[in-house]
């Protein structure tokens, strides 16, 4: 009886979505005395970072390759409460007209794709005009004052970015926010490695396990296979939960257009088809991820066992790959990427205005904020939001 009374008096909160954003929010609220109910449409927590060990013993990431990297120590420290890590330096190769070279495009790529004399000349110009160890977005190099830098920028634009970006987004690089291609800058260095953050680790038992640990708290109840929008209704700017006015915090990490029943039209997302293949061989390709920059309808192939080889966790003689085929996000597709073009962002702002009028509705995450963010940023944003409550 006492327990029931105690829980009745507790503050409550609802979290929509048990991806990384919702799970971080739920955990912090729970630790601050809230009784939190988390609704998750899918049959397991994890959101797009969901992974599982398949029948071959390989840790497979169901919604595409997820590599953790951050320079934000507070994010790393927070997540470290829920997982051990192993160091992992992610390497990507690009298939450029049949040759496999390091991506981001670097000095090794230059020497593998240009003849020695021209590669030496361009390297010298890059070192003097851009600087050793510098990383620069391709779009900013295209208008460089030096013709050799412009020549290189045009080559990289045409062969690394143009086709890949058209496949991925349906737009040319310059039609998207400049930050999209700036995520993979040209690197005036011989060092390989897709990321340059201070902390580059993978969770020892995978992201799902980390997220389940985060949600394991006496104040958190997770309802999987439950669409929150079957329980939540908006009327006169108020939230109703199961028919009753609900004035405690609702942290929403789903699509904002869906929350408002698409009344202002659909927000533009890109979706993906993942096609998985299993091979009876130890290794399928020479890097964990190979991008297809100049050919194929898919953007990249990920070979999952290479993500865990550093901790010796992969079986021999069998390997699993996935190919990613981008496509527009139709009604039953998963919305993976908000499309960073002005018309879509303007429409998002109209939805945001409506959301801002509901005092106990809080938005976070890649879908609800319509922001192309990595996991570390998703964690930081969710933590900041609920710490302010
Ligand atoms: P999501 O993971 O999308 O979670 C949202 C959750 O809400 C989902 O589980 C969904 O089912 C649930 N939901 C939505 N609506 C409802 C509803 N009405 N009721 C109940 N539940 C609902 N980041 C990195 O840092 N490194 C990477 O290498 C990386 N690779 C990526 C590769 C791909 C292909 C993609 C798509 C993303 C990648 N990311 C990567 C980004 C990363 O996935 C996100 O930053 C992070 O997972 C965002 O988490 P989230 O909780 O905001 O969203
Ligand atoms: N990109 C590209 N070629 C590459 C790698 C990236 O054109 O070889 C562009 C493309 O537009 C892509 C963006 O840079 O969507 C960001 O790449 P990233 O690898 O960060 O994409 P994500 O892993 O988020 O899908």
Tell me what the structure shows.
- The chain is an alpha+beta fold and 389 residues long.
- The chain has helices at residues 2-9, 20-31, 73-80, 107-113, 116-129, 138-141, 147-169, 179-182, 207-215, 256-259, 305-308, 342-356, 365-368, 375-387; strands at 11-16, 34-39, 51-53, 59-61, 69-70, 85-87, 92-96, 99-103, 135-136, 186-187, 199-203, 220-223, 232-235, 238-241, 244-245, 250-252, 269-279, 289-292, 300-303, 319-328, 337-338, 361-363.
- The strands form six sheets. A seven-stranded mixed β-sheet has the order 8-7-18-19-20-17-21. It has a five-stranded parallel β-sheet with strand order 12-2-1-16-22.
- Strand 3 (51-53) and strand 4 form a beta hairpin.
- Residues 1-7 have low confidence and may be disordered.
- The structure holds flavin-adenine dinucleotide (FAD) and uridine-5'-diphosphate (UDP).
Any chance you could write out the topology, listing elements then pairs?
Blueprint: H1 2-9, E1 11-16, H2 20-31, E2 34-39, E3 51-53, E4 59-61, E5 69-70, H3 73-80, E6 85-87, E7 92-96, E8 99-103, H4 107-113, H5 116-129, E9 135-136, H6 138-141, H7 147-169, H8 179-182, E10 186-187, E11 199-203, H9 207-215, E12 220-223, E13 232-235, E14 238-241, E15 244-245, E16 250-252, H10 256-259, E17 269-279, E18 289-292, E19 300-303, H11 305-308, E20 319-328, E21 337-338, H12 342-356, E22 361-363, H13 365-368, H14 375-387
Parallel strand pairs: 1-2, 1-16, 2-12, 7-18, 16-22
Antiparallel strand pairs: 3-4, 5-11, 6-11, 7-8, 9-10, 13-14, 14-15, 17-20, 17-21, 18-19, 19-20
Helix pairs in contact: 2-9, 2-14, 4-5
Bound molecules: flavin-adenine dinucleotide (FAD) and uridine-5'-diphosphate.
The site of uridine-5'-diphosphate (UDP) has 13 residues, from α7 and α8.
């Amino acid at each position: 009886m006492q327990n029931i009374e105690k829980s009745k008096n507790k503050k409550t909160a609802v979290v929509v979505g048990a991806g990384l954003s919702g799970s971080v929010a739920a955990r912090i609220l729970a630790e601050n005395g809230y009784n939190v109910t988390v609704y998750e449409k899918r049959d397991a927590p994890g959101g797009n970072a969901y992974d599982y060990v398949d029948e071959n013993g390989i840790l497979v990431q169901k919604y595409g390759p997820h590599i953790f990297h951050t320079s934000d120590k507070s994010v790393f420290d927070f997540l470290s409460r829920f997982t051990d890590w192993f160091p992992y330096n992610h390497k990507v190769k690009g298939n450029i007209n049949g040759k496999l070279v390091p991506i981001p495009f670097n000095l090794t790529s230059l020497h593998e794709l240009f003849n020695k004399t021209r590669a030496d000349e361009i390297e010298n110009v890059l070192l003097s005009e851009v600087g050793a160890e510098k990383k620069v977005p391709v779009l900013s190099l295209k208008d460089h004052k030096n013709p050799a830098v412009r020549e290189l920028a045009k080559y990289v634009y045409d062969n690394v970015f143009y086709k890949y970006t058209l496949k991925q987004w349906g737009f040319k690089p310059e039609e998207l926010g400049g930050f999209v291609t700036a995520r993979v800058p040209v690197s005036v260095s011989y060092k390989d490695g897709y990321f340059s953050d201070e902390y580059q680790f993978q969770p020892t038992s995978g992201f799902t396990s980390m997220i389940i640990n985060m949600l394991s708290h006496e104040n958190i109840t997770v309802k999987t296979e439950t669409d929150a929008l079957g329980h939540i209704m908006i009327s006169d700017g108020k939230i109703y939960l199961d028919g009753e006015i609900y004035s405690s915090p609702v942290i929403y990490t789903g699509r904002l257009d869906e929350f408002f029943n698409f009344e202002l039209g659909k927000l533009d997302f890109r979706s993906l088809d993942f096609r998985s293949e299993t091979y009876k061989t130890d290794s399928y390709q020479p890097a964990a991820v190979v991008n297809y920059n100049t050919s194929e309808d898919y953007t990249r192939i990920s070979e999952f066992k290479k993500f865990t080889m550093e901790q010796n966790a992969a079986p021999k003689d069998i390997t699993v790959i996935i190919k990613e085929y981008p496509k527009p996000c139709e009604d039953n597709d998963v919305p993976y990427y908000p499309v960073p073009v002005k018309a879509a962002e303007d429409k998002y702002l109209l939805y945001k205005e409506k959301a801002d009028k509901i005092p106990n509705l809080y938005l976070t995450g890649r879908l609800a904020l319509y922001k192309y963010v990595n996991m570390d940023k998703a964690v930081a944003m969710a933590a900041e939001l609920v710490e302010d409550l």
